[in-house]
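Changelog note: in this version the structure field was regenerated for every chain. One regenerated record is shown below for reference.
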Amino acid sequence: MIEKWEEYRVVNEALDNLVNEVDAIPKVKKALRHIIKAGGKRTRPIIVLLSGRLCGGEWSEVMNVALAVELIHTASLAHDDVIDRGVVRRNVETLHVKYDTSLAILVGDWLISKSVELVSVYNEEVIRDFARVGMMMAEGEIMDIDSIKNGGFGEEDYFKCIAAKTASLFAYSAKNACRIVSDDKKAAEYLFNYGNNLGIAYQLVDDLLEYLEIFEDKKSEFESRTLPMIYEERYGFEEAVARTLQLIREYANISRKSLDYFDDCESKDKLLAMVDFMTADLLKNYVSKNREVLRLLESYQHT
């Protein structure tokens, strides 16, 4: 769906230009081409462009932060794949498998540094928030790794983990796009809520699909402790799936509701469609052939 949007084309074109024009040694440029050409949904930078336009701005005003959030996200994937010993992502060899571990780590570092350079054109508040989000993402990943090492990692710990690891960047993307083009503090707060709740809903979907072993384009040796696993221990398989689906629905609805503040327009419609794309549509696209699971996932669409 979003692959047909103009925002998707613009983001990919900007990323290609960045890689082609960047002043870096050949080995870094080659690795950058590999990890960026591997693709992705580009949801975070698209949310930046849509949020900026929703608040009265132009894409050009927020393009640097759009690229920055995609680069820091890409860096986190490069580092996560090393930590998780991932071998395939999006049906493409991970960077540390294609080249080597040291290069994957250092290119991840390069991407983080480049993302900081990109946001440096904005005001101090936007830059400071970006730094904080980077720290939150790292802390969330540490909590994720520790989830299988230490006993007692429960529901509350899980939500703290995904709020930091995943939701923080979505919230930053929406909120700070608004801040850059508008002084409307309420709009910025509503967009923060939109991104935060969407990020939580998305991570719940991602963890549920991994729990159901539906992913075919991602392979790794590390398995973190997720909410469906926690729920299965308490309630059994079917109830674990049902409860996770209910939470996905609730967080997705809160995300949509956050946009009620804004007048109807194309950007708002696309931000609303993004919620479906990252929740209900993902569930449908990766639905299991298992009849029991299929029935549970279908129930998500009818309640």
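Spot check on this record: The radius of gyration is 19 Å. The beta strands are 88-89, 92-93, 218-219.
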